[in-house]
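Technical note accompanying the year-one report. For the benefit of new consortium partners, we illustrate the data format agreed upon in the data management plan: each record pairs a sequence with a structure-token string. No post-processing was applied to the example shown here.
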Amino acid sequence: MKTVMLFGGAGFIGKNIAKALLNLNFKVVIFDRSDPKIEHERLVYVNGSLGDLDTLRDALKEHSVLEFVYLVNNIPVNAGGVNIDDLLEINKKSIEIIYQYVDRLVFFSSGGRVYGQGSLAHSEEDALIPICAYGKSKVILEEFILGLSAKNNKKTLILRPSNPYGPYQNIYGNQGLISIILGNLIAGKKIEIWGKGDEVRDYIYIDDLCLMFLNLFLAERLPQHIYNIGSGRGCSTNQIVDICIALNDGFKPDIVHKEATNLVRKNILNIDRYTSIFSEPEFIPIDRGIKEYYHFLLRMKI
């Protein structure tokens, strides 16, 4: 039985990946500051944060971890003017320790933040032109991981997801447009939109993300180290708002447009590299995905 450690596994993507791996009979070790609250005989929770290097080292040894998924992030997604050097140094020290023990590290980067402006769908070979601290940190860590894995003769897989949404995403945070809108709708609050709402993004339901992740993760041999994970389709903010509002009968929220600068007008991921190896998933349509997520939230009484 193989053991996979999920660093930051109590978060939105981590919880969903953990459940997917448990369904395939993996042992899963979640290393996080928060308890994932998943009860399973093959799941182990280790309380620790990004800077707890001794705790991380002990957990890697104790559980004989050979496969490692790096989901943790300590750099604000929507914050500007952040000095990221010290924060990156903590990541680098953790990664150096991880490579002392594991055979492979899977790093979750960001397909929505590492590419620059462009009218065409972004492929993995496009130039990386991040416009925020979060995106810059992902690019720097990608390069660091590729260099360190080559130096230590270890395997690595870098994934660049688009904009995932679905169960377990934080509806009270500042990341995840669909989650924030649904959370505000359920709470009877106004909806804030940056800019005109005509910017286009690639959204992917979390189940589809997990399917693409598992295909890549389980493949014995891959021709490349880096893969986009997205739907390859675009949807505007205004379209998302309309879909969400249509689900909430009887409540018409106030919509407030806020001035925004440096907005990426269009960001869609090209997934040809993935589909050249695996068949294209039957992606859950955006309206059905949002509906399923909305009813999940209602059942959870969030």
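Partners are asked to follow this layout when depositing records. The longest helix spans residues 133-152.
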